[in-house]
């Protein structure tokens, strides 16, 4: 049984490749840095839990022992707290190629349509550099360059399309000149299998894409219709400056660990157009890819699709609201601690408890407000908010029970915040 290893095996394309190769008779293993994400794939395959950019040439030689095919489906959209484009797209490929130089192994590289060393984004430039290293240094290789991948899994660009198409009542007109081609993720996986089986000659560089071309507003309209939403009431145009500002905010969040598909790299790529030449793949002997209409027909939208689209919009709003509420709560207390202390003093709370309670609570509020914005801590911060809110409620029953009957409802209003914290904890996946 031939052996294949998929780098980034739990990503959108990687997991589809794992499944397709396994169905085609390969003994498949995956490589990635997250054991939790690997487990979520749900396949009984061997996993090598390593951070791919940190693997040395010697590490690769050990990993490649007995391997017939390496599929590189790893990658990152933009530099951030957890991602280094140069490391993952260039350095890792160089070490892999060096390790495989004397081995009978085929490397199938998942690149991207439109890559170029002079491209407008670092993503495309570093991908192009990695492709060049592979094509000039490896003995047996195939480079596949998909366009915008559409999948049953909601991740990255596919999640963004679902969310944008799910906006209630409106369908903003944005990137109106952008020309986009799509490809079904299973067609990408099928191309990987054909390459892994040796049915595609070594040295092939091919775009994996449908023939049809869509402008971005029409693409969103098709996604909206597929999801089953009513036609939008309004389609307001979005100024380019607002789109750019959104991208800059998403870039900043990238340094807090968030991998938003609204970062400037994605927006620039969409604005430039995502196009490929399907003939490069078919002339190499590959099977034709399905059109977007055919892809969507294979993926009937369900209630879960619609709920995901709306939840994807609601989640960042919930996180932002909680961060703002907790930060302001702590800062307002620190600006005027005397007022907060007077509430406890008037209710005969022991004097030695007042200052630690007020200042400790304020600092805890601020830490939780910052913590929920830091991606690795978001779920923990949401639980912390639930716990601290519960302490406030319990403490108020003993120290200030009269506040529960206050017409402004200061204690009752804690309950919606707790509910919002619980929603964030439930919706944010640990990765």
Secondary structure topology:
Elements: E1 3-7, H1 12-23, E2 27-32, H2 35-40, E3 46-49, H3 57-63, E4 69-72, H4 85-100, E5 106-110, H5 122-137, E6 141-146, E7 148-150, H6 157-165, E8 179-180, E9 182-184, H7 185-196, E10 204-208, E11 214-215, H8 216-227, H9 240-254, H10 264-272, H11 279-282, H12 292-298, H13 303-335, H14 337-345, H15 351-371, H16 378-399, H17 414-427
Parallel strand pairs: 1-2, 1-4, 2-3, 4-5, 5-6, 6-10, 7-9
Antiparallel strand pairs: 8-11
Helix pairs in contact: 1-7, 3-4, 4-5, 6-8, 6-13, 13-14, 13-15, 13-17, 14-15, 15-16, 16-17
Written account of the structure:
The strands form 3 sheets. This protein has a 7-stranded parallel β-sheet, sandwiched between helices. α1 (12-23) crosses α7 (185-196). The longest helix has 33 residues, at 303-335. The mean pLDDT is 91. β1 (3-7), α1 (12-23) and β2 form a beta-alpha-beta unit. The protein has helices spanning 12-23, 35-40, 57-63, 85-100, 122-137, 157-165, 185-196, 216-227, 240-254, 264-272, 279-282, 292-298, 303-335, 337-345, 351-371, 378-399, 414-427, and strands at 3-7, 27-32, 46-49, 69-72, 106-110, 141-146, 148-150, 179-180, 182-184, 204-208, 214-215. By secondary structure, the chain is an alpha/beta fold. It has 17 helices and 11 strands. The chain has 2 domains: 3-301, Rossmann fold (3-Layer(aba) Sandwich), CATH 3.40.50.720; 315-427.
